Amino acid sequence: MMNNQTLLKATNLTKSFGRGHTEVHAVNDVSLEIEQGELILIMGPSGSGKTTLLSMLGGLLRSTSGQIVIDDTNISTANESLLPDIRAHKIGFIFQAFNLLDALSVRENILFPAQLIPDKIKQANQRADQLIERLGLGKRRNALPATLSGGEKQRVAIARALINQPPLILADEPTGNLDSQSGQDVMMVLHDIARDENRSVILVTHDPRVEDIADRILWLEDGVIRDRKEDKHSWVQCPVCHMQVDEWTTPFTSAYQSKRYAFCSKRCFERFQASPHSYGAEHD
Amino acid sequence: MLKWILKTLWGQKGSVFSSASGVAFAFILVVIMEAAFVGESNQIVSYIRHVNADVWVMQKGVSNMHMATTFVWDWKAKRIAELPGVKKATPILYVNTALKSGGRNWFAYVIGLMPNDARAGPWSMAYGKSHPGQGEIVLPHVLAKMTDAKLGDTAMIADKKFEIAGFSNETFSMANSIAFVNFHDLEELISTSGTVSFILVDIESGLDKQSVAKLIEQQVEKVSAIPHEQFIKNDFQIAMLMGVEVVSFMSIIGSILAALIIAFTAYSQVSRRKRELAIAKALGYQNRSLYLAVLMQTLIITGLALIVAILISIFLLPLLTTLVPQITLVVTTTALIRLCMIAVFVAVLAALVPARIIANIDPLTAFRS
Q: What's the N-to-C CA distance of chain B in angstroms?
C-alpha cells in the first residue's frame, strides 16, 4: 500500500574514515529515495558499507558530505542534541543482536522508547498490548529476555521499534541470529509492517531468501550503489574448496592480484588469506 | 526509566547491597563521631544542668565553667543571699584537675561541697554517701565499673588521699567526670581561704532570672551573674568550639569514604552497562536522561545506606552506650538532617564520576553484535 510519497531522501552521501593516503570511503556518493510503505533491501558483501549507510540514515553517524532528509527533517544539518529526539519520533531500530534490556520484561522492553514521548504514554500502553498480541508474544509478556528464543527476542525488538509509530524502520541483519523458520517469520512481520501500516522499512541483510518480499534491492559494493544484474544469483566456485557460492550475497570476498574471489565460508576465506598465491594461482 | 534502573539494581542485588553497606558504614562513622562529641559536650554541662541553679555567680569576666578558674570572696555569698528575690545562695569550690583512682588518672571537675548542704551535690546516687565528709570523695559509678573501685578504696587528687564514700550516676564522661569532696578539703588542696569559685543562686518563684542576675551584678561588685540557660549555652559553645574541627574532619573523611564507594559503584555499573546505555542512546535517549539515570541510581544506593545508617543510629547506638558505659552518645535531629544533606551531596558528587563514560558512549555500538 505505497502511496508514492517520499519519506527519505539521501543525496550524494559520503562517509570517509582516515585522512590522506589512509582515507577510505566507506560510503561514496550514494543517493537514494525511499517512499512511504516501501520495503528496501540493502545487500552487498561484507565491508561494502551497508551498516555505515544504515547508521547514517538512522542519524547515528554523521556523513562526511551529502544530506539526508527524513519526513521533511534534514538530519544532516540538525543539531547534535536534536538527533536523539528525531530518532525517538521518526525511526525504529531493529538490531541483529536484538539488544533488549536484560532487566526488563517483554512488555517493559517494548515500552522503553515510549517514555521518550511522555504525553502519549497512555496510548503506548494500549499499543504495546496490541503489538504483543499481534506478534504472538501474549504468553511471554512478563518474561525476561534471557528466557526467550531468538525469534521471540526479535519479535520483541520489532514491537519496540514500532511502539512510537515511527514512519521509518531500520533493520540491521534482523535474521542474522535466527534459524530459518524464525527468520522467515520475522521477515513476514516486517513485510506486513510496510504493507499494512505504510511504514518504510530499510533492511540490511545477507540473507538471499528475503529478496522476494522486497520492493527494491540496493546492491552496495565498495561504498557505491551499483546496478545488480537481473539474475538473482551469480554462482562462482570457491577457490579453496571448489563449492558453488553466490558471489553477490556471500559475506566472504577478497581481492588478489586485481581479481575478486568469493568464498563459501569463513574457514575457506581464512585459508585463502593465509596463502593466497597457492589458491589464486590454482584458480587462474 | 525508573523501572529500568530499579530492575537493573535489583538484578545486581549483591553488589548494590555491598555498596549500600559500605556507604552506611561510612555514614554511621559520621553519626557516631558527632554523637560521641555531642554526648561528651552534654556531659560537660551535665553538672550545671542537673544542679539547676537559677543564676550562677562567678568572678567578673568569667562566663562559663568548663576549664575556667574563678575566685569570689565568700562574704559575697552572704551578701547575695540577703538580696531581695534570692531564696538561697550556695557557694562551691571548683577545680579542673586529674584524679587518680583504680590505678589510672581521670580528668575531672572536682566540686567542693559545703558541710551539711546537699544543694550542689550529686543528683543521683548508685550507692554510698552523697555528701562527702572530711577526707572523703564521691566518684562516678561508671569509674567504679571500669576499675573495680569499691567503697573504702583510696582516690588521690595531687598528693592528697581521699576515701571513696559513694558512687554517683550520670557524672562520668571521657573528657571530664565529676567528683565531689568536702569544701574544706578542696580549700586546703588548692591553698585558698575566704574564697569560693561559684555561687549557685536559687530565686523566689515567679521572678525573672535575668532581672535577679542584673540586680546581683548591680549590688555586688566585681561579679558576673548569669542565668542558668545562658550559662549552659556558654559552656556548651566552648565545648563545641573545642571539638568542632575534629568532628568536621571526621565528617569530611566519612563523606569522602561514602562518595568513593558510591562513585566506584556507579562507575562499575556504567562500565558494565555500556552496551545497554548505547542501545538507549540509539533508541533516542539523550545524554542528560542517562546522567539522570545514574544520578537516580546513586541516590537510591545512598538512600538505602542512609536508611540503614539512621535505623542503626536510632536503635542500635543506645545499646552501644549500655555495653560501653564510658561512652556517651547523643544522636540529635540536627545531626541526622546534616547526614541527609551530606548523603545528597555525596550521591550527586558520585554521579559525576561516570558522566564522561556516558558522554563518550557511541550509540553505534548497538549495531555491533
A: 24
> Which of B8, B275, B364 comes nearest A60 by C-beta?
B364
In B, which residues are within 8 Å of A81 by CB distance? 286
- Of B3, B286, B367, Cβ closest to residue A84: B286
Binary contact (A54, B367; C-beta < 8 A): yes
pLDDT of residue A283: 45
Closest C-alpha among B363, B183, B154, B335 to residue B276: B363
Mean pLDDT of B275-287: 90
Q: pLDDT tens across B240-249, in order?
A: 777 667 767 7
Q: Which residues of chain B form beta strands (DSSP E)?
A: 55-59, 72-73, 86-101, 104-113, 125-128, 136-140, 154-157, 160-168, 177-182, 195-196, 198-203, 223-227
Interface test with B, best of A116, A120, A160, A164 (most B CBs within 10 A): A116
What does the pLDDT read at residue B226?
A: 96
pLDDT for B369: 54
Average pLDDT for residues B213-226, to the nearest whole number? 95
Chain A residue numbers with beta carbons less than 8 Å from the beta carbon of B280 are 101, 112
Q: Is A6 helix (H, G, I), strand (E, B) or coil?
A: strand
Mean of pLDDT values over A177-196: 81
Q: Regarding beta strands B86-101 and B198-203, do their DSSP bridges make them parallel or antiparallel, or are they unpaired?
A: antiparallel
Cite the beta strand spans of B5-159 per DSSP E.
55-59, 72-73, 86-101, 104-113, 125-128, 136-140, 154-157
* Cβ contact A116–B279 (<8 Å): no
A61 touches chain B (CB under 8 A): yes
Q: How many Cα atoms are found within 13 Å in the side-chain-facing hemisphere of B286?
A: 13
Contact assignment for B283 to A81 by CB distance below 8 Å: no
Question: ipTM surpassing 0.85, yes or no?
Answer: no
- Rounded to 5 degrees, what angle do the CA atoms B225, B231, B232 make? 165
Domain boundaries, chain B: 2-44+238-367, 61-221
Q: What is the mean pLDDT of chain A?
A: 85
Give the nearest chain B residue to A112 (CA atoms).
Answer: B1
